[in-house]
């Protein structure tokens, strides 16, 4: 998309002097319309990729409260080696699954978009992940407190 966005104005400028006056206005407006459509398409592609990343984060973040609660209750009962291993394994599974999703998204983006556009999308994904994970952990803290109160009676 970026290639066409950069080439179209140059082609328009090169063709403009050679076109008859009757056709010049119409063709130049079509070139302008094409550039506008390409800009819109580029923005939609970037938005869609960020949306996919957001959906994957939401899917994986649903497990965070259970991992967090498991850690809290395991640590409260007793510091059993087996319980600590379970927490590490659950956390590792969460991080591995989310990491695979991000890796796949990065490969798709790198193979599809220019470096500048890929950087823009990945920066937005990073922002979304930062906000999403912060919110999920904050929610985990709240749900852990509620679950603790329920267990204590």
For this entry, give a set of tags.
0% strand; mainly alpha; 5 helices
Structural class: mainly alpha
Number of helices: 5
Q: Give the rounded overall mean pLDDT.
A: 75
Q: What Rg, in angstroms, do the CA atoms define?
A: 25 Å
Report the span from N to C terminus. 60 Å
Principal-axes shape call? elongated
Q: Approximately what portion of the residues adopt beta-strand conformation? A: under 5%
Ranges where pLDDT stays below 50 over 5 or more residues in a row are: 76-81
For the secondary structure, the number of strands is 0
Order of helices and strands: HHHHH
Reported for the largest beta sheet, the result is: none
Helix content bin: over 70%
Write up this protein.
By secondary structure, the protein is mostly helical. The chain is 91% helix and 0% strand. The chain is built from 5 helices and no strands. The chain is elongated. 8% of the residues are buried. Residues 76-81 have low confidence and may be disordered.
Compact overview of the structure:
This protein has helices at residues 2-15, 21-61, 64-77, 81-112, 115-152. By secondary structure, the protein is an all-alpha fold. The protein starts with a helix and ends with a helix.
């Amino acid at each position: 998309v970026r290639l066409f966005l950069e080439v179209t104005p140059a082609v328009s400028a090169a063709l403009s002097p050679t076109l008859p006056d009757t056709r010049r206005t119409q063709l130049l407006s079509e070139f302008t319309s094409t550039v506008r459509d390409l800009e819109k398409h580029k923005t939609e592609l970037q938005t869609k990729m960020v949306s996919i990343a957001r959906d994957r984060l939401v899917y994986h973040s649903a497990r965070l409260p259970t991992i967090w609660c498991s850690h809290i209750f395991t640590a409260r009962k007793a510091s059993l080696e087996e319980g600590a291993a379970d927490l590490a394994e659950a956390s590792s599974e969460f991080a591995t699954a989310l990491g695979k999703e991000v890796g796949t998204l990065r490969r798709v983006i790198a193979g599809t978009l220019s470096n500048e556009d890929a950087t823009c999308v990945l920066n937005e994904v990073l922002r979304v992940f930062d906000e999403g994970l912060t919110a999920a952990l904050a929610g985990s803290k709240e749900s852990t407190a509620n679950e603790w109160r329920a267990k204590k009676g």
